[in-house]
Write a structure and sequence with these properties.
Number of domains of chain A: 2
Order of helices and strands of chain B: HHHHHHHEEEHHHHEHHHH
Shape of chain A: globular
Number of helices of chain B: 15
Number of helices of chain A: 15
Structural class of chain A: alpha/beta
Helix content of chain B: over 70%
Strand order of the largest sheet of chain A: 7-6-8-9-10-14-15
Strand order of the largest sheet of chain B: 1-4
Oligomer: heterodimer
Largest sheet of chain A: 7 strands, mixed
Distance between the termini of chain B: 18 Å
């Protein structure tokens, strides 16, 4: 065999190898055109209002990035896709975003099942995905990958912070009204875990089907037990109807109402009387601007871009997750998944609510948790509906440990 | 009639297409990924087309309207996913597992419903479909419950040393097409067999079929199980395509979707279900990107077709060809 023949064969082999490795795909992707961020969120369906806030937050971060010169001149664009709140649809859209639109990063989703679906598709293709929806499962080793980041809080943190605030203050005899799906279950676990050191006693945990409209059969049972605290572990419309009906039953007289996530959108939809005195956790609340400079800066930019509107939890998550990825891409000088993942792990940032960072073992954003109480008096304007009653500082000890999640420490 | 020359080219095409219907469908499916806006959509059309073909075997050819077929798509997906995720089975063994479970569930459901007719048949299948939904929903340790099953990952396929990159959308599509083509050939063969003729006779007149000596109940049951198995294969492919199994694949809306696809495409025609699946998914895909009111667009199109093309898109087209 002649030497040229061998050389040609080697060349062919290496060309074939190069063509089949994922690194090749990534590097081709990195060099051409703008940076693309795929953004699957539930634009239609029950969480449409929240999804709109998510999009506005992300667009603000991208606007800033582009105005400040991009990544060595490379601009960024946001590709918003509707998940319809369905994991199957979300998986298809994510495939499309990666295969057809050549998205460099995926951010988004608003549901436990949807984010796990998006995460699985993205991680298989070594694309960074930053989730902005609550979930404990995504931290666990089974779903986690080096390309999985969780910007939102998780139920353990949220319920933990709220629990640690309410147990000493309002009592140890507790009851749950829980939507019967992952979100509800995880929140109950979070409260019980936080309550253990306080010696709390769970009187009853009533599970209701998701989307229930009538709670009158559950409430008398809770009332007869006279709990100190009633936890509403449900979300959206379920939360509003159940809190309203429990209030109408007169449960509020002896029992404190608590919900893991108290959002501006739910409060504005439910009204001040329904929510009066309800305590809950929050990722973000715009009145943080009174004490935190980065919140003030974020609010001002948001108001300017969106005709005076104040950002909600979801706007803040959309903004900080996208800004974190773009900052990391700048630090890495590249959009390569591995390089940006490393840069994200090293990132210490303060974009909306004080200092944050991603824990190294599970990429959970370690951040402060707000505890807020809904009010009906002394309101400055229509958006001034909560008082911040406590802020739990970022603290890894409030998360489940890396070993517990199955990670090697 | 045999071999008589056709008078017009249209009729010639029509006879050729119906004579080689499997080849014609496969030819269409081979070029499909380059016609759709994305490869992921083409794969979905492939999967839901097969799902609708399986459903149509029962609905269009045997005349039984089931509202519980999501149970077969879903259980096919879950069985494939579960044996891969929890037991580490290779993908090529996982697909038969999906078909088997779907067929078994089809056998149990079929045994219970086959003696009811019309609206009662639809109601009972709907109810049993919901039972299957809740069984999988509650078996959280195995199925992931509300979160769905994740991790049905296939990176490469090893065909006797020839490595295929299953993450490449085109490769994935064609691997799935092999299975779909085999299933289509099987359905076509089945319909052309005496058994296929019995199915149609049951649809046309049950009493007369019984009077001719055919066991109507057994024929229906067999059709039910085969239909379930084909939907199970569609489910198995879906698990591999999406790498997840969402719980809504068992939802009654997924059962309703396949009814819509069959009606829109043309029930009782071989290619109709595929046309229906392709139309619905395509319109949804494009409309979703253009407007938030995508449901309105899909709804209006569906109404127009039901009102003005009761034979469905493909059924009307065949009718038009036949009249030329």
């Amino acid at each position: 065999m002649s030497e040229t023949n061998i050389r040609r064969r080697k060349l062919l082999l290496s060309a074939a190898a190069a063509a089949t490795t994922p690194f090749w795909i990534n590097s081709v992707r990195a060099q051409e055109g703008p940076i693309r961020i795929g953004y699957p969120v539930p634009l239609t369906g029950p969480y449409a209002a929240e999804a709109k806030d998510q999009v506005q937050g992300a667009e603000l971060a991208i606007m800033e990035f582009n105005e400040s010169g991009g990544l060595n001149g490379r601009k960024c664009e946001l590709l918003v896709r509707d998940t319809k709140l369905s994991p199957g649809e979300a998986a298809t859209r994510t495939l499309e975003l990666i295969e057809k639109d050549k998205a460099n990063f995926i951010v988004g989703s608003l549901s436990s099942s949807v984010q796990l679906a998006v995460n699985n598709v993205a991680k298989e293709r070594r694309i960074i995905y930053s989730s902005i929806s609550q979930s404990d499962t995504i931290n666990e080793v089974k779903d986690w990958s080096p390309y999985t980041f969780h910007e939102a809080m998780n139920p353990t943190m949220t319920a933990g912070a709220v629990g640690r605030y309410v147990f000493p203050k309002y009592g140890k005899r507790i009851a749950f009204l829980t939507a019967d799906y992952a979100y509800g279950h995880e929140m109950v676990k979070g409260f019980q875990r936080a309550g253990k050191p306080f010696g709390v006693e769970t009187l009853i945990d009533i599970r209701h089907p998701i989307g229930a409209s009538d709670y009158s059969t559950f409430l008398p049972r809770i009332m007869s037990l006279k709990p100190d605290i009633l936890f509403f572990c449900n979300f959206g419309r379920d939360l509003i109807s159940s809190i309203k009906q429990a209030g109408d039953f007169g449960l509020k007289n002896n029992t404190r109402f608590v919900t893991p996530q108290l959002t501006l959108t739910a409060r504005l939809a439910g009204g001040s009387d329904v929510f009066d005195g309800v305590i809950g956790g929050a990722t973000y609340y715009w009145r943080l601007e009174d004490t935190v400079p980065s919140a003030k800066a974020f609010n001002d930019k948001y108001r300017k871009a969106y005709a005076g509107a104040v950002p909600s939890d979801f706007s803040a998550l959309g903004y900080s997750s996208v800004r974190a990825i773009l900052t990391a891409a700048r630090n890495a000088g590249s959009t390569d998944s591995d390089k940006v993942s490393t840069a994200l792990r090293q990132l210490k940032y303060d974009f909306t609510k004080g200092p944050e960072y991603y824990r190294n073992c599970d990429h959970q954003a370690v951040q402060s948790v707000l505890v807020i109480e809904s009010k009906s008096k002394n309101m400055k304007d229509k958006n001034d509906v909560f008082d911040i009653v406590a802020i739990e500082k970022p603290d890894e000890s409030h998360l489940r440990s890396c070993q517990e999640l199955g990670h090697k420490a | 009639m045999e071999g008589a020359p056709s008078r017009t080219p249209y009729r010639l095409i029509a006879t050729q297409v119906s004579r080689h219907r499997v080849a014609a469908v496969i030819a269409f499916l081979v070029v499909l990924p380059w016609l759709t806006p994305s490869h992921a959509l083409a794969a979905n059309i492939l999967i839901f087309g097969l799902y609708a073909v399986g459903f149509n075997l029962l609905f269009g050819y045997t005349g039984l309207l089931s509202f519980g077929h999501a149970a077969f798509l879903g259980s096919g997906s879950y069985a494939t996913g579960v044996v891969m995720v929890h037991y580490g089975w290779p993908w090529w063994l996982a697909i038969p597992a999906g078909i088997t479970l779907a067929a078994l569930i089809g056998l149990c459901m079929g045994y219970l419903v086959i003696r009811s007719r019309g609206i009662y048949f639809a109601m009972v299948t709907l109810a049993l479909g919901q039972c299957v939904y809740f069984a999988f929903y509650k078996a959280e340790a195995i199925t992931g419950g509300e979160n769905g099953l994740r991790g049905v990952n296939v990176e490469t396929i090893d065909l006797l040393g020839w490595k295929l990159d299953f993450q490449d959308p085109i490769t994935k599509y064609f691997v799935m097409l092999v299975f779909v083509a085999a299933a289509l050939w099987f359905v076509s063969r089945l319909l052309a067999s005496p058994f296929g003729a019995v199915l149609e006779s049951v649809r046309e007149n049950e009493k007369r079929a019984a009077a001719c000596g055919y066991d109507v109940a057994r024929t229906k049951l067999l059709a039910f199980v085969i239909s379930a198995a084909i939907c199970g294969l569609a489910g198995a492919l879906r698990a591999l395509h999406l790498s997840i199994v969402p719980i809504d694949s068992l939802h009654y809306l997924t059962s309703g979707q396949v009814v819509m696809m069959s009606l829109l495409g043309g029930m009782g025609t071989f290619f109709g279900p595929f046309v229906g699946a392709a139309t619905i998914l395509w319109v949804e895909d494009v409309a979703t990107i253009l407007t938030k009111s995508w449901q309105l667009v899909v709804g209006v199109i569906f109404i127009i077709f039901v009102l003005f093309f009761p034979r469905g898109i493909w059924g009307s087209f065949l009718h038009w060809l036949g009249r030329r």
